[in-house]
Amino acid sequence: MSDTTLTEWARLLFGTLAKCGVRDVVVSPGSRSTPFAWAALHTEGLRCHSLWDERSAGFFALGQVRATGRPSVLLCTSGSAAAEYFPAVVEAAQANLPLVIVTADRPLEVMDASAAQTMNQLELYGRFARRYVELGHPERASAALDGLVRRVAQAVDESRGPRPGPVHINARARKPLEPVAPRSDDDKALSLAVSARLERGPTSRLPTVSSTPSDAALQQLADRIQAASSGLIVCGPLAMTEGVSSHIFSLAHATGFPLCPEMTSQARGKPGYQQADEVTVLGAFDALLASRFGQTLKPDCVLVLGTPPTSSAFERFRASTEAEVIVVGQGEWADPSNRARFLIDAEPSRFAAVLARALGSSGDAERMAARRSFAQRCARAENSYWRIVDQVLAESPKDELGEGAAVRAAIDAAPQGCLLGLGNSLPIRDVDAFVPPNPGKATRVWCQRGVNGIDGLVSGAAGAAHGARLPSLTILGDVSFLHDVGGLAAMRGLELPAVLVVIDNGGGRIFDELPVQSAVADSPELARFWLTPPNVDLQHAAALFRVGYQRASQVSTLNAALKVAFEQKGCTLVHAVVAPHSARTSRARIRALFEESLERELI
Description:
Largest sheet: 6 strands, parallel
Number of strands: 20
Helix content: 40-55%
Low-confidence stretches: none
Number of helices: 22
Distance between the termini: 49 Å
Mean pLDDT: 92
Strand order of the largest sheet: 2-1-3-4-6-5
Structural class: alpha/beta
Radius of gyration: 27 Å
């Protein structure tokens, strides 16, 4: 049976280029580029030009670009043909001209094996290309198709600026290269999936001026939001800028959409907004979306502010929702699900304030009534979840400290206006899962979610405490602490309390939350390759660097330790020894009870 994957992959590639505003494709004939040339020739809206001399073709395309202002596409076969474009690429880079180069390439299995017309084409144009995109081998998976659309849209977007120039897309192809018509049910389903993505079109990156959307773009967004009968505002990590929570709450109030803030968003505590009590806050949105309730939630619009949230449930929801997703992030393409309808390059909290003013009265009475009904249903689920969390934490044996109780005790002990640091991997998730939003408590939050690593957290906590000149609390895991134990030296010289709560759960318990846990359970001798219990005495680390030390293995002793730590100046290491599987056990119990409540309370 013939496989249509390459045919449909090429159709989606060139169909997306057309959707991104490309109109001209300059083709230098060759064999390996056959599926891509065929797709270009059969894509509505594209004009194809044939020039056998690649060097001439490159400058021909630049002439088009200079005359039209639009990026043109160069398409060639594999091998030295791609090198012939180099002079035109250099000219495009130096002259700031948008140009998209699509080079066909051989499959990976023939690389470095003296295969004919095969060479290393990765980043062939070096620093002269504004972006290099390696598409890899064609795939049928839905996520791969979405990723192709997003990566092509990114490439075209980058060719246009902020500094226009050439971008290089390397597209691999295995034989057979000729087009194949869909015949089987699977092939027909793939064709429909590609057609659906081309009909929807790629993410649109709305124009901004000094990180503020243009008036036309702002009005376009306001119109889309006002047309929605339901929606969510989801906040990932945001900077500790002045008024950030107030701006976000003002937008939530203007839209009537429930606000889903993770702790790192700065919008989970005291908002400083007069109508804050009229906003529905879903602090448990990760758990809600992971439940049967989340499966029934069908918002018309989802507005994402900041870098992607930690919530894996939200990522799954965003990847499957039919809602119109609008992402606001500064200087980045913050859409790992590849499904956003609009991207806005702006500082999220300031954008929220601007959009709230633009919205004014958000829609007619019937639509606002629908939004209130949606928000009320979400609020019932939120309240039910936190009642269950309280119940489960209260069930823990008095002589045992669970992870959920430990992070809640630490947050509760932090003074008003405290600087809070959250470590990866479990602490940042534990806080959102076990600590409800506190509208009466102002907290500034920092985290290291750039690449989500566990290194440098102690040093980062020291730097944040020195910089903010506030009492500080940092919650991190035992493995994270040992990765940066030398960072305790940077804690010296602090005049205000700096409390490091180290959750000692036997190391690497994030893997209890992942599918590999079941495999390790069946092969306990392999556990040491995932679970990494440090098995060290942290008191000696504290003594080595002359910082305070408190140890606790019960809620009562932890509360006492935290009280002492926040009464002392300088750094105190609070060693919270918790039951190793307590986070997983508590989460499972909460999930089960919450699912029961959904049925019982008819949420």
